[in-house]
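Exercise 7b. Backbone tokens:
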């Protein structure tokens, strides 16, 4: 077995990333050994909270002290030969694309455990699965070996499936099965495309940096790109591969919905940047207009579909489809500002959507219903809850001063100034995408009106408002949206060097690909 590579300027003498990745999974093995029959959540919950808090502290220390956002190359590199016969390496590293999403994952997962305060059934399994999920999420963002990435991508499906199937609503088996069928089938395309790239060169390699250096083009590159696009597009999700999302959110409990919206959807956007844009730039230049069209469809269709939902969580899920369309627009912009906007939108939406699903869970615990027609007048009974839900809704509809506004306007500016497309194409894109911006406040504010105002339902006249623990979780999610809204550089400085490098590479490939008939102006 090879030793860890000698430390370079981008490496760390301490295995920060391995510790961040393995710590939660290691403690998940402790859960079955705890005393009790699984109905008492105190020990499992306490251990999960402590471990994930320690993991978040490790992330903050590693990225604040040993990570330089001004560098675009990989940092904190750890590389260990794991299974030489398969070419599999334990290869971890961070750059501007992964570091902010790892932090987002750590924060949302910790808060989802804190939101699971009232889970009292099979608690050892429940909190153990959340710990495994935390490790799998970090490994997806930090892996620099394709097979390791794929194993992590598959591993994170298992806890989500079980969390929905065991602790979900009445249709939980249907929703969990639909989720696993969609995502597992899409994973086959990811595996085939990745292995095809690994075998395409003179020497077999699974290292992502070496695969990116090959820059496969032609029909082969297009086929691999399409395989990745469909595989990752299910998780983003891209229309028409999105239909699992509303069912999963509708049946999952609020903490699991926080993970689905706050972290899992971001895996799709991250993977598109890491694989489709970074590894296959020639194919991306050709398919970028189609991505923009798909992004517009996501934005408008998701917003229109939200109007048809009478379940609060399903309406927010459709809203997520719409908002992730801006990620597609930014990725397809072939512009540094557009790609930066896509990254900022993932961070912003991760915080806002997690907040909305958490607060939805707060009033579900009081009312025992998510049916919009069966609610009304909750503003007087739950004034603090109403204030938090309204604040998260305003952030979601891109109110100036909140992170949603900064991220979406950045995507718009990226499309506007992109010289890769004709002026007509850019104008049509902006106009159609703006329809989604108009529809979003309508369906979100109408949701607030129907749930919190109108006639008060007698059965809901006396319910308790948010407790201090719930206030803390809500503030922890909403305060960063305000900070990023007023001071976006706090997030942009972490990833800007990496997104600029992606854009420069696309520009260089565009200049060199003069023999390709690109549909650009």
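Sequence design result:
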């Amino acid at each position: 077995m090879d030793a860890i590579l000698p430390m370079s300027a981008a490496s760390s003498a301490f295995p920060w990333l391995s510790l961040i990745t393995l710590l939660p999974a290691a403690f998940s093995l402790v859960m079955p050994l705890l005393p009790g029959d699984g109905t008492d959540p105190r020990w499992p919950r306490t251990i999960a909270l402590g471990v994930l808090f320690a993991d978040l502290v490790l992330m903050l220390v590693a990225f604040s002290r040993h990570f330089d956002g001004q560098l675009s190359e990989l940092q904190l590199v750890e590389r260990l030969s794991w299974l030489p016969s398969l070419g599999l390496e334990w290869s971890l590293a961070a750059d501007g694309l992964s570091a902010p999403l790892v932090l987002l994952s750590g924060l949302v997962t910790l808060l989802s455990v804190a939101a699971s305060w009232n889970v009292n059934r099979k608690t050892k399994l429940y909190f153990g699965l959340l710990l495994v999920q935390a490790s799998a999420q970090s490994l997806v963002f930090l892996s620099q070996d394709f097979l390791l990435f794929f194993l992590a991508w598959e591993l994170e499906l298992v806890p989500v499936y079980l969390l929905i199937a065991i602790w979900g609503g009445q249709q939980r088996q249907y929703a969990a099965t639909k989720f696993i069928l969609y995502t597992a089938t899409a994973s086959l395309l990811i595996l085939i495309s990745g292995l095809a790239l690994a075998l395409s060169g003179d020497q077999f390699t699974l290292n992502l940096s070496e695969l990116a250096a090959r820059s496969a083009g032609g029909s082969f590159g297009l086929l691999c790109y399409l395989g990745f696009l469909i595989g990752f597009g299910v998780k983003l999700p891209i229309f028409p591969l999105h239909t699992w999302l509303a069912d999963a959110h509708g049946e999952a409990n609020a903490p699991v919905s926080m993970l689905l919206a706050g972290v899992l959807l971001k895996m799709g956007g991250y993977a598109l940047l890491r694989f489709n844009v970074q590894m296959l730039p020639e194919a991306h230049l050709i398919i970028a207009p189609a991505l923009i069209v798909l992004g517009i469809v996501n934005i408008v269709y998701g917003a229109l579909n939200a109007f048809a939902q009478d379940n609060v969580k399903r309406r927010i899920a459709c809203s997520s489809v719409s908002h992730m369309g801006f990620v597609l627009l930014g990725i397809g912009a072939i512009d540094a500002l557009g790609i930066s906007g896509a990254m900022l939108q993932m961070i912003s939406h991760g915080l806002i959507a997690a907040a909305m699903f958490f607060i939805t869970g707060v009033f579900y615990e009081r009312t025992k219903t998510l049916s919009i027609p069966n609610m009304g007048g909750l503003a007087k009974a739950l004034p603090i809850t109403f204030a938090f839900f309204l604040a998260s809704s305003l952030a979601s509809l891109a109110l100036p001063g909140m992170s949603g506004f900064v991220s979406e306007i950045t995507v718009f500016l990226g499309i506007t100034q992109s010289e890769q497309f004709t002026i007509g194409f850019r104008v049509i894109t902006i106009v159609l995408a703006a329809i989604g911006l108009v529809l979003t406040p309508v369906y979100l504010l109408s949701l607030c009106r129907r749930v919190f105002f109108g006639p008060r339902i007698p059965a809901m006249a006396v319910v308790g408002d948010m407790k201090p623990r719930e206030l803390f979780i809500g503030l922890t999610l909403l305060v960063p949206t305000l900070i990023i809204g007023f001071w976006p550089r706090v997030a942009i400085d972490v990833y800007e060097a990496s997104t600029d490098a992606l854009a420069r590479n696309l520009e260089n490939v565009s200049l060199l690909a003069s023999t390709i008939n690109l549909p650009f102006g």
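Instructor comment: The mean pLDDT is 89. The chain has 20 helices and two strands.
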